[in-house]
Specification:
The complex is a heterodimer of chains A (about 190) and B (about 425). Chain A is an alpha+beta fold and about 190 residues long. Chain A has two domains: about 70 residues; about 110 residues, OmpA-like domain (60s Ribosomal Protein L30, Chain: A, 2-Layer Sandwich), CATH 3.30.1330. Helices cover about 55% and strands about 10% of the residues of chain A. Chain A contains five helices and four strands. A four-stranded mixed sheet of chain A has the order 1-4-2-3. In chain A, helix 4 links the parallel strand 2 and strand 3. Chain B folds into two domains: about 120 residues, Rossmann fold (3-Layer(aba) Sandwich); about 260 residues, Neuraminidase, CATH 2.120.10. Helices cover about 10% and strands about 45% of the residues of chain B. The longest helix of chain B has 17 residues. The radius of gyration of chain B is 23 Å and the shape is elongated. Chain B starts with a helix and ends with a strand. Classes of the chains: A alpha+beta (about 190), B mainly beta (about 425). At the A-B interface, helix 4 and strand 3 of A face strand 20 of B.
Chain lengths: ~190, ~425
């Protein structure tokens, strides 16, 4: 932000300087030359100012966007992206309702947003059953989002089964971390 | 297990390690065994002043793995007994052998080796079998497996499976590989490498093709690959997930699981990918199809009643019958080659064990005692079951005799092994 302000100040000073260069002159030729020079200088100054202002606006917009992207704001519920499940279960717990509600609204409000629901399992038991279970976990989160208003066309689901564990280790803490569906926005 | 047998196994392992030190080889550990075993003496093979113990060591290790045969040590008899008319022939019988394997190796002018062997009844002193093989020196292990097949069948009446192959997934760092190895885990060959997950390798009944699931495009797609040329094609890439391929024993059809319509459901297609037909409906989880030996019926896993259980249905479609009721997690079933029983994974007290169920009585027997035993499959003769076991957080392969008496582990320092499947 500071940089932008500084940039505007400099542009302002330059514009001021260029206007000071146009002193009245008694000779006609000088007057004409001066008028042409003034016009050229004014145009250059205006162009520079406009360009700088546009750049500043773009930078500001980018910075603002970075700052307030609700998906990345740790204080925003939209930064929560995972639904966790019990062993061999795919029902979405009621504690995830506020989070899913927020995502459903965001998806509905942003028609260009596309999300993939990625289902995962802990590494015990059948590879193929876990692949199917992960699909169920992804689909049940998709269904919840759909019921809360997220358009189906903006959502897809996939299962990685037990092939992509987030946590390593053969204990309940690691397994619980791996039994989940991640809400992944496609631009991410 | 007696000391002598331990020593024999240990020496066999040492020998293998010394023979091919450059390769990351499997190590084999055997425990248990049948109450009564057939005592067999194997006279070490030699020829032209050279030692060809590779053949007899592979043979001895194969026979010991069954748990049905014990070894009578005649390795101290020098030179080894090579012919039945050797006056020392009676020594093997005197040491308790019921049968004796004799043989020798004749180097050929072209560098190949002729391996001659006889299986003798030690009591009657009659010949039970006799064969000759002419092979390259690097094929001596294969000869050992072939002789083991013949000896095993002559002594037990059941065909041997030592010259068959196994396939499995090995994960090494971030790389997945499908490998094929000899039945004892040796001589591994890479079928496919990938940075993304590979799953569910399945043999064609003739052993010439392999189907598998690959995530290389970002989602689960089923491929079919010729094992001799490595050429492959996409078998199923429908929208959603494509998985769990299983060849019918008659080679004509492939059952698989698709999510393209409604949940994970069973489908069947011709082996060339044509004529797709949906078999199950309901939108829940139906997966892991497995064919009966006559190709008419499928066993599969379904969670239609709330927990995953084993079901059976006609392979052309129709009503499904539930077969498992004990416990809340019975999955990954495979039909026995005689069609009379099936092996599956049962979760008990938070642990996953291999179990076998007799189809006539519905009685189940637990065969393994690991923490996380998975992916069981029968040897083609039905006498052994290969599965994946987790040992100290590492994936290893394990073999258990179908009576649960003999256990064997195949570990590989190179990587984590899973999803083994016994092939032709």
């Amino acid at each position: 932000m500071k940089k932008t302000v500084l940039g505007l100040v400099i542009v302002g000073l330059l514009a001021g300087c260029s206007s000071e260069q146009t002193k009245p002159d008694t000779s006609q030729a000088d007057a004409a030359r001066a008028a042409a020079a003034k016009a050229a200088a004014d145009k250059a100054a205006a162009d520079a100012a406009a360009k700088a202002a546009a750049e500043a606006r773009a930078r500001e917009a980018a910075l603002a966007a970075q700052k307030i992207n609700p998906l990345d704001d740790p204080n925003n519920i939209l930064s929560q992206r995972s639904v966790y499940f019990a062993f061999d279960k795919y029902n979405v717990g009621s504690e995830y309702q506020p989070m899913l509600q927020a995502h459903a609204k965001y998806i509905e409000d942003h028609s260009n947003a596309k999300v993939q629901l990625q289902g995962n399992c802990d590494d015990r038991g059948s590879v193929e059953y876990n692949l199917a279970l992960g699909q169920r976990r992804a689909d049940s989160v998709r269904k919840s989002l759909s019921l809360l208003g997220a358009p189906e066309a903006q959502m897809s689901s996939i299962s990685f089964g037990k092939s992509k564990p987030r946590a390593q280790g053969e204990n309940e803490t690691a397994w619980a971390q791996n039994r989940r569906t991640d809400i992944v926005y496609q631009s991410e | 297990m007696n000391m002598r047998r331990w020593l024999a196994v240990w020496l066999a392992c040492l020998w293998v390690l010394w023979l091919v030190p450059a390769r990351a080889q499997m190590t084999i550990d055997i425990t248990g065994g049948a109450a009564t075993r057939i005592p067999v003496a194997i006279s070490p093979f030699a020829g032209a002043g050279q030692d060809y113990r590779t053949v007899t060591d592979v043979l001895a290790a194969d026979l010991l793995r069954t748990g049905e045969i014990s070894m009578v040590d005649v390795s101290d008899i020098a030179p080894p007994i090579a012919e039945p008319n050797d006056p020392r022939f009676g020594m093997a019988r005197a040491r308790g052998a019921d049968a004796i394997v004799l043989g020798h190796v004749l180097p050929q002018p072209d560098g190949r080796l002729e391996v001659r062997f006889r299986l003798m009844d030690a009591v009657q002193q009659t010949q039970l079998a006799g064969y000759s093989y002419t092979v390259r020196p690097d094929q001596l292990r294969m000869v050992g497996h072939h002789i083991a097949d013949i000896v095993y069948e002559k002594l037990t009446g059941v065909p041997g499976v030592f010259s068959t192959h196994i396939a499995y997934i090995i994960q090494q760092g971030s790389q997945y590989r499908i490998e094929i190895a000899d039945s004892d885990g040796q001589n591994p060959q890479t079928v496919l490498k990938s940075k993304e997950a590979l799953m569910s390798p399945a043999w064609s009944p003739d052993g010439k093709y392999m189907a598998y699931v690959s995530f290389e495009t970002g989602r689960a797609i089923v491929y079919e690959q010729a094992l001799d040329t490595g050429k492959r094609f996409v078998l199923a890439a429908f929208p959603g997930s494509n998985s769990a391929p299983a060849w019918s024993p008659d080679g004509k059809r492939i059952a698989l699981v698709l999510t393209r319509d409604d949940g994970s459901q069973l489908y069947v297609m011709n082996a060339d990918g044509s004529h797709l037909k949906r078999l199950t409906f309901g939108g829940g989880i139906d997966t892991e199809p497995c064919w009966s030996p006559d190709s008419k019926t499928l066993l599969f896993t379904s969670a239609r009643d709330g927990t995953p259980q084993v079901y059976m249905m006609p392979s052309d479609g129709g009503n499904a019958t539930r077969l498992t009721f004990d416990g809340s997690y019975n999955v990954s079933t495979r039909w026995s080659p005689d069609g009379k029983s099936f092996v599956f994974v049962q979760r008990m007290h938070g642990q996953f064990h291999i179990a076998v169920m007799d189809m006539a009585s519905g009685q189940a027997q637990v065969l393994s005692s690991g923490i996380d035993d998975e992916s069981p499959s029968y040897a083609p003769n039905g006498k052994m079951i290969l599965y994946a076991a987790e040992v100290n957080g590492r994936g290893e392969l394990a073999v258990v005799s179908s009576d649960g008496e003999t256990h064997e582990r195949l570990s590989n320092a190179a990587g984590l092994m899973e999803q083994p499947i016994w092939g032709p």
